[in-house]
Amino acid sequence: MAAKVRKTATKLADGRDFFYFDDSPEYVSGEKTRRLDDPRPLGDRFAPHVDEDGNETAFTGPIMRYDVLTGDWIPMAAHRMNRTFLPPADANPFAPARPGAAYQDGEIPDTDYDVVVFENRFASLMRVPGVPDVVSYLDEGELLAERPAAGRCEVICFGPKLEENLISMGEKRMRTVIEAWVDRTEELMAMDGIEQVYCFENHGVAIGVSLHHPHGQIYAYPFVTPYTEKMLRQARAHREKTGRNLLADVLETELKLGDRIVAQTEHWVLYVPAAARWPVEMHLAPRRQVARIPELTDAEREDLAGIYLKMLQAGNRFHQNPDGSYVDLPYVSGWHQAPKGAEDDLRLHLQLISIQRSPDKLKYLAGSESGMFAWISDTTPEKIAARLREVWEG
Amino acid sequence: MAAKVRKTATKLADGRDFFYFDDSPEYVSGEKTRRLDDPRPLGDRFAPHVDEDGNETAFTGPIMRYDVLTGDWIPMAAHRMNRTFLPPADANPFAPARPGAAYQDGEIPDTDYDVVVFENRFASLMRVPGVPDVVSYLDEGELLAERPAAGRCEVICFGPKLEENLISMGEKRMRTVIEAWVDRTEELMAMDGIEQVYCFENHGVAIGVSLHHPHGQIYAYPFVTPYTEKMLRQARAHREKTGRNLLADVLETELKLGDRIVAQTEHWVLYVPAAARWPVEMHLAPRRQVARIPELTDAEREDLAGIYLKMLQAGNRFHQNPDGSYVDLPYVSGWHQAPKGAEDDLRLHLQLISIQRSPDKLKYLAGSESGMFAWISDTTPEKIAARLREVWEG
């Protein structure tokens, strides 16, 4: 692993995978603190379920149903209803273990860490050992299908402190996060049945964040997501028509026109897409054909750490309150990576979107968006880009 | 027009179409009150725009961009940023005109009404006379396309009183609303360039409702919406494979299995779809092949008025607070109608969805939904259906 990051793999008490990514010798996890094991008496997460009458049923994990009206798979994670929601600071499950405590409620066994990744305790995608990944049907006519939601949901904590965020932690830590994305994308893409890996971050209560600790998520889907399916269809039609890669042509066109370019570095281009559908939307793309994060060179990763943080900073200067202060932008920032077999058609790019349409107003996904999937924008891509350029240097 | 509804067409001062649908002789609009004209000194809505330096530019209306990454058209209504948002009751623009007032700010010229429909003042879809509906390109390579968003957005007010709603107004009024949907679907589908008509209602502040007055909306899209495109692709694949109509087969299967059926009447079936993606979701379908609302028989419309209101009532009993009171369910309720040319493939059905996942929690569309269009449900369709059956009779 590049960039002097040390990975240590361990397991939580209930069998979930847990990885430390330490970025500075002497490494904090297991060296200074020497406590990598999870001391909690957590039960086997695959244990049979016992109902009120004492009857046992085997745990088969979450399922997903095929929506025959749209062609989408819908994972159904009914067990997630009771997940932790905005706990007080002293019950933060992503805080490091308290030194000397015999038992603790959090997810982190060690008393310090740099970056950690672990399987989500409330996973909507989960492969359960012994449960075959096969389609079954609710009806004899085989119209209504279901399958195990045999993917994987991981959490990535960017640092040990509740009050920090990616921006305050700086480029060196960002670089470690990138290495963690590289590692997880490689390992998850190699797993049976995984079609696509999505590394993303939800930021802000307005977007539904349920824990304030600075963290992101990594979903390994056992299907190609609907957004990616749309992109694949468009990319393949474009290749048939022109012989070229769609995302390469989009990037070249945006660079030529220039009106929606926000910033450029040696290896990356940040622009507002010509049909931006959200009040704030940015795409961050490498200059060359890259299908997934692990293919990025060291130089590209180094460069990315810088522009990623500048992008977040510009987002935080986008909306200004009447008193001159800025709105901490709620956002979803996620990596579009090629699914298996689509390495030539798709191209790695990050999409950052925000529902904040003014300092005090949010965009809601109401009838047209939720019922018809037909987005309506209240602004223009050129206005978004102009504002971002205006606030880029701070 | 059936059901003893009288339609009166008029115009607002700025040229927008305005329709009264009166349901009881003596008819309230123009008979009892005799004031159908709009007395406001509103400017021509298609007037040229004059900038700070006095330069005139022709008003060309909203445009839409083609999102080449997804294949979706995205209307961009930058002029809507300043639309009215949750005004106080005395500034309710959907209230009837005050008797004797020489001038009023509201949208309703008459001092009373039953149901009215009019073109939205802050329309994201609008055909501007003289603006040709042609595609142009941002770039020489013709990759980034735009077109006028030459559709139409109408508002439908269900009644004159701010504090009422469809449930409190009752079946007779609901029947009038159905007649208004029939009328508008027929007229809008006959307009140049309109592909699809969507009659829907956003209910509740949590879904982004910007005006409390009981109202719905009618969008006439100049394109086939992404959701409908997905359904069409699935329906056509199903017909190729089986020779049958997809939605007919889904309905037949749901009736046979029964677990997700909520209620049935002579002409309608209300069920939770097998792959429901929202915390609450119901589909309401006629028993026979009907492409759009105007094809419904009188008996089907009559029957619909009853089950529609019972459906809303059951929704309002879905979530119970700890004190025994119920949550007024925020919802989107919208009609999927066949676009032009797809009358045999698609079938009319209503979809009601809610983001309320517990009495005090909402479902947010975060990373997976917003970034990947991959919905994850926190419940199961069978649980939703069981709860709805439990509260159906109140």
Automatic annotation (TrEMBL), chains A, B:
Keywords: Carbohydrate metabolism, Galactose metabolism, Metal-binding, Nucleotidyltransferase, Transferase, Zinc. Its EC number is 2.7.7.12. Residues 30-52 have a biased composition (Basic and acidic residues). GO terms for cellular component: cytoplasm. The active site is at H215 (tele-ump-histidine intermediate). Residues 236-346 form the Galactose-1-phosphate uridyl transferase C-terminal domain. Residues 30-54 are annotated as: Disordered. Its cofactor is Zn(2+). One of its GO terms (biological process) is galactose catabolic process via UDP-galactose, Leloir pathway. It holds the Pfam family GalP_UDP_transf. InterPro entries: GalP_UDPtransf1, GalP_Utransf_C, GalP_Utransf_N, HIT-like_sf. One of its GO terms (molecular function) is zinc ion binding. Residues 64-224 form the Galactose-1-phosphate uridyl transferase N-terminal domain. Belongs to the galactose-1-phosphate uridylyltransferase type 1 family. This is Galactose-1-phosphate uridylyltransferase. It comes from Boudabousia marimammalium. The lineage of its organism: Bacteria, Bacillati, Actinomycetota, Actinomycetes, Actinomycetales.
